[in-house]
Structure formats: C-alpha cells, structure tokens
C-alpha cells in the first residue's frame, strides 16, 4: 500500500506563500478605508506548516471573498510560545489592518510563569475557530504502541526520552507536565518554534515523541501515515479519528487542547471588530469551509470573541493551579 499525500495542505501552503510575498501597497493615509485601504496583516505566532499557520492561511483565502477588496498578508513571527506575535499585535495601530492568531493555553499560561511583553487587556478576541486535542505522536516505526509502553520505558530510563513541543507553556508542554505528574515519570522537554518543526523532528527521528494536536498530524486519507498518535488529550475521541483513544481511556487523567482563533488590538473600532467576526461566522457556516476544514484536519469549534473571552478567566485559573502544583519549565 502506498501513502497518498494530503494535497489540501500542500496547495494551501503554496497559496499562502504567494499571498505573503505579494508586494505591499504604498503606505496608507491615517484614515484609510477598511478593509480596502491597504493590506490586512495576519500575524502568526508560530513557524509555517503548523496548525495555527495552516488554519490562518485557509481563513485568509475565505475571508477575502467575504470582504470584497480586502487583501490579506500572512506574517509569521515565531518565538517565545507565541509571545513575539502577541506583543507585535498589541503594538499595532488599532485600525483593523493588523490582526493575528491567538492560541490557548499559551496565550494565558505563559504570563503565569514569567513576565511577558503583552497585556491581555490590550488585545481583543474576535473569534475562536478551533479546539484541537493535544496528543502524543510517534514515528510509525517507534517501539511505543501505547501510552503504557511509553510509561514503562520512561520508568526504566528516567530523563532519557525526548518529547517535542511548540514551546514553553504551550498546550503540548502543559500536557507533558500533567502526564509526568500523573505517571511519576521524567522526560526531556524539547521546545521548538512551532508544530511544523516538531513534526519534522519526529519524522527525522530527532525526538522520541512529538507533542502535537490531532489536527496537526496530517494522517487522514493516508494508507500508511509516517506518524501515528498514541492517544489524544481531549475529553472525548475526535470524530475524524475515532480509533485514537483518549488519555483518560488509557488510565491517565490528562486533558489538554489548543484553542486557535483571531484577535486584534483592544482599541479596534467596534464596527470593524463586528464585521470581522460576522465575516468569520459566514465562512465557517459554508459547506466549502467544512470540506476545507476536513481536508486540513481542523477540529472546528467556533465561538464569537466575547464568548471566548468570557471563558478565559476559568481557563487561566486552571493553568495557575497546574503551575502551583507542577511548575512547567524548560
């Protein structure tokens, strides 16, 4: 049997690269009409190829059709678990021409562990799109077939097995922290600047286990995918991967997901924020988006910005409890 590549992701990355390298217009006047006055920058806090990058490139293409005349430019600014991008987004003029992706838990958890260059009070959530279960993923040829296999080997070789993540304080890292506490094990944490790099490290066997979200693996539609998940950290199995058990089913009380959505500087006019939110809502309601999301393996979970923000204090409290019990560090 042969492996069939996922054409959706490949075409999307090519299209997104073309958008990102398109020449920018001349500097716009202060009162440039939104959304056509100049290109709208979408700041991505992680390297190309990961779940956040792929989602936002797809969204940009669909939003262009919902906002006639709008021209979106992808700007990848990876680093510090998303902090670099969040700081840039906060510093941007609140005119609607700079928006960006935000990811929980990192957006909420990184400020718990250290001082950061952004303030959540100065950023405004526009919409949540995805809630993607975190997972432990291994190379197809890995000797680990189950989480129990991994735990048994980790207890034989404490501090020798490497687990990659998208950065300190991200969902992958927090999931690893919870797993170590639940099992009494110790792993080597290997942070990268995005899920695409983690995935490449797993494919090249530079790490033993990859902390990825189920939607980032790229295994649907393939007869023999190069990577395979041991288990996912969602409350329930994902309907697109019903064969993948949860950590709880395997006997480990570990629950962690990655929410991904759009935000803008807090001072963005309400009219622009609402137009963006409504445009995103129209996109996610389209059958064409549903099919694209399936191709890109995006676990959709749309929420308007205000509803998403209303959930964040409880999420932050949970991450603070994790920090107090089992501080996550490099």
Automatic annotation (TrEMBL):
Q: Family per UniProt?
A: Belongs to the UPF0065 (bug) family.
Signal sequence annotation: 1-32
Q: Which InterPro entries match?
A: BUG, Bug_dom1, TAT_signal
Instruction: Write down the superkingdom of origin.
Output: Bacteria
Species: Muricoccus nepalensis
Name the SUPFAM superfamilies for this protein.
Answer: Periplasmic binding protein-like II
Do you know which Pfam families this protein is assigned to?
TctC
Q: What is the lineage of its organism?
A: Bacteria, Pseudomonadati, Pseudomonadota, Alphaproteobacteria, Acetobacterales
The record's keywords, sorted A to Z, are: Signal
PANTHER family in UniProt: BLR1237 PROTEIN, TRICARBOXYLATE-BINDING PROTEIN
What's the protein here called? Tripartite tricarboxylate transporter substrate binding protein
């Amino acid at each position: 049997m042969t492996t069939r590549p996922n054409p959706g992701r490949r075409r999307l990355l090519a299209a997104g690269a073309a958008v990102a390298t398109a020449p920018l217009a001349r500097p716009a006047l202060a009162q440039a009409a939104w959304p056509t006055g100049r290109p709208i920058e979408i700041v991505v806090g992680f390297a190309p190829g990961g779940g956040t990058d792929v989602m936002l490139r797809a969204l940009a293409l669909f939003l262009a059709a919902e906002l006639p005349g709008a021209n979106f430019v992808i700007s990848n600014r990876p680093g510090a678990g998303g902090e670099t991008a969040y700081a840039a987004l906060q510093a941007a003029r609140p005119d609607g021409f700079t928006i960006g992706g935000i990811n929980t838990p990192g957006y909420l958890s990184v400020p718990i562990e250290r001082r950061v260059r952004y303030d959540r009070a100065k950023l405004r959530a526009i919409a949540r799109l995805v809630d993607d279960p975190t997972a432990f993923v291994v190379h197809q040829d890995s000797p680990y077939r189950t989480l129990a296999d991994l735990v048994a080997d980790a207890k034989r070789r404490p501090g020798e097995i490497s687990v990659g993540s998208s950065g300190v304080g991200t969902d992958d890292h927090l999931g690893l922290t919870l797993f170590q506490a639940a099992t009494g094990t110790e792993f080597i944490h290997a942070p990268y600047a995005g899920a695409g790099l983690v995935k490449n490290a797993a494919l090249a066997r530079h790490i033993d286990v990859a902390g990825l979200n189920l939607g980032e693996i790229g295994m649907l539609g393939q007869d023999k995918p190069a990577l395979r998940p041991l288990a996912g950290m969602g409350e329930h199995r994902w309907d697109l991967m019903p064969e993948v058990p949860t950590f709880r089913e395997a006997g480990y009380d570990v629950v962690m997901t990655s929410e991904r959505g759009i935000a803008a500087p807090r001072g963005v006019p309400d009219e622009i924020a609402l137009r963006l939110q409504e445009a995103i809502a129209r996109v996610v309601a389209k059958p064409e988006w549903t099919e694209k999301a399936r191709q890109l393996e995006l676990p959709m979970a749309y929420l308007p910005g205000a509803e998403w923000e209303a959930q964040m204090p409880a999420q932050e409290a949970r991450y603070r409890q994790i920090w107090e019990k089992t501080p996550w560090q490099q």
